């Protein structure tokens, strides 16, 4: 089984001779990192809109290219989550609220769980991914969530 460690630091401190930037750009700072990451990862804002996703994240989650999902709500951007039963029914709204990216967003705490992702038009078993999410804070309030994925 893959081992994933997640460690986040505070906002980068500007140099003493540089004017301080507002802390409210935390999501923007993570956006650039996620967009260029080799690992499958995703950044959503407080409205669940996809702010950034890595190319490998799009591939793993069967979402096409990053530009196809950035700017759209996470669950309206083609992400097809199914349950773990043999029937592979799509998750209900109540069940999707408990997926790690949304749980971290709503609870303000780390969240981890397994997801079963079904590609568009696929009849196969789908893939199972381990998702680890952390809230992204702005001025002490949750402004989004950052999620790393690993295929199980």
UniProtKB/TrEMBL annotation:
Highest taxon above the source species: Bacteria
Protein name according to UniProt: PAS domain-containing protein
């Amino acid at each position: 089984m893959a081992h994933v460690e997640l460690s986040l630091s505070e906002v980068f401190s500007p140099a003493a001779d540089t004017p301080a930037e507002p802390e409210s750009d935390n999501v923007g700072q993570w956006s650039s990192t996620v967009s260029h990451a080799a690992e499958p990862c995703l950044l959503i804002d407080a409205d669940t809109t996809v702010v950034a996703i890595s190319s490998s994240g799009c591939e793993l989650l069967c979402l096409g290219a990053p530009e196809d999902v950035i700017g759209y709500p996470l669950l309206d951007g083609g992400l097809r989550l199914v349950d773990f039963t043999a029937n592979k029914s799509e998750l209900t709204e109540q069940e999707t609220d408990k997926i790690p990216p949304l749980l971290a967003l709503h609870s303000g705490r780390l969240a981890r769980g397994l997801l079963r992702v079904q590609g568009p038009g696929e009849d196969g078993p789908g893939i199972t991914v381990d998702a680890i999410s952390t809230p992204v804070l702005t001025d002490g309030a949750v402004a989004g969530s950052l999620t790393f994925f690993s295929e199980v």
